[in-house]
Amino acid sequence: MLILFDHGTPKGLIRALAGHIVHTAQAKGWETLSNGALLTAAEEAEFELLLTTDRRIRYQQNLQGRRIALVVLAGTTRWSLVRQHAERIAAAVASATPGSYTEVEIPFEPK
Fold it and tell me: Which of 17, 33, 50, 71: CA 20 to 30 A from 91?
């Protein structure tokens, strides 16, 4: 699967997504794009999934008719806590389908 990490997504998750091709919005020069423009650019570049920390994207964008799947990390983005949930995040990525929206809650306290 071709995956795009938004600017807030911890890069350490790349290791948890072995077997997938991961690019960052920053590496693509897309770090300043608004959510709508980012989704459009990602779809045009044939990304299959956007991994983001922006929970507001669901309410700011009309996701109906989108081909790209969204997995949103909700809660903390602190790597020491996110990495404890890497398997859950990888499972959400693996089960994503075109146009789907999934939130993975990352608690602010250690599990």
Answer: 33
Rounded Cα distance, 44 and 59, in Å: 22
Rounded to two decimals, what is the model's pTM? 0.91
Separation of alpha carbons 67 and 16, rounded Å: 24
CA 89 to CA 10: how far, in whole Å?
12
Rounded CA separation 41/80 (Å): 31
What are the CA-CA distances from residue 96 to residues 52, 78, 93, 101 (Å)?
Answer: 14, 24, 5, 8
- Rounded distance between C-alpha atoms, residue 110 and residue 50, angstroms: 26
